[in-house]
Every structure is written in C-alpha cells, then in structure tokens.
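I hope you will forgive my troubling you with a question about protein structure. The matter concerns a single protein, recorded as an amino acid sequence and a row of backbone structure tokens. Please examine both parts with care and let me know of anything in them that strikes you as inconsistent. Thank you for your consideration; the sequence and its tokens are set out here:
***
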Amino acid sequence: MKLDAKRIKAFDELLARDEIRQCLLRYARGMDRHDTALVASAYHADAIDDHTSYIGPGSGLALHANAVHDAMWEAHQHFVINTTIDLDGDTAHVESYLISAGRRKQNSGTELHGGRYVDRFEKRAGRWAIAARILVYEWGLPAEGAVEALKSVPLGTQDPSDLSFMRPLRVWRKPLE
C-alpha cells in the first residue's frame, strides 16, 4: 500500500477521531469512578463546561458531580454513544448522545437521563481535549423528576438552531450563584 498524501490525511483523521473517542470514554469512566484527575484529563486547562447545574472550568466539574452523585445515588453509569466528529484542522465539533443511569440510595429507585454533549475539541501541543462543552438535556425518567430540569437548562431543537450547529461552540451562560 502506497502512503500518498490522501492516505496520510485519512490516517491522521482516523487517529484524531480515535483520540477524541478515547477522551470521551476517559471522561465517562472518571465520572463513574469518581476519579477527578481522569475527568479533568478530558479538558484543556481553560475549558468551560455548561453542565446544567454546574457552569465553570471543566477541571472543576468532577468535584461538583461527585457531591451531587454522592447525595443521591449508590451507583451510576454514564454511557457515551452515537458520536459524530466534524474535524476542521486542529478543531473538532463533536456531538455525543448520552444516557446516564443511577440507583438511588437504599435501592429506592432508578433514574434514567438522556441528552447530548455538544463539544468543541481542540488539539493543542499534540493533545486532543475538550475546550468547550454544553450538556443539552433531552429527557428523564421518572418523568416528574425531569419537569423542573427541563425549565432551566439548554434544550435541543430539531432544526439548525440546535446547539450542535453552533460554530465555534461557545458557553454563554454565566456560572450559577
């Protein structure tokens, strides 16, 4: 097989896509294992995350999430699926569907939540990581628990006004008080 410019470019794109997917999986594993360093490794140092109830540095998300998870759940899992990656040089616009499942304390119930991570990844110093993230909340079960959340968080649309089309992606909401 001859490695011409077209094949080298395709190979570089495959590597970039794999590095981005591995970063998303590190993030999910870090969330479920309460590993703050692993979660932080998915972000650039100056990354901003709008994660519904947390808006701030990506490196601080894990501490906030751990406190929320510890207060409510005995166990939880975050699934990252249906990932699309739009590469543009050293920037990638990434949309990943997510499902999170949690078992309430004393096995008092199970919750399911669905949404999407809308990310701007950047490659800096040879490393792909999240530069900006907005969690778009789509649904929750039991439904009565999702009603309040749907009133105050970024929601998706089924047209080009959806956040997944924003180029470049920017977090615009201010940190919550």
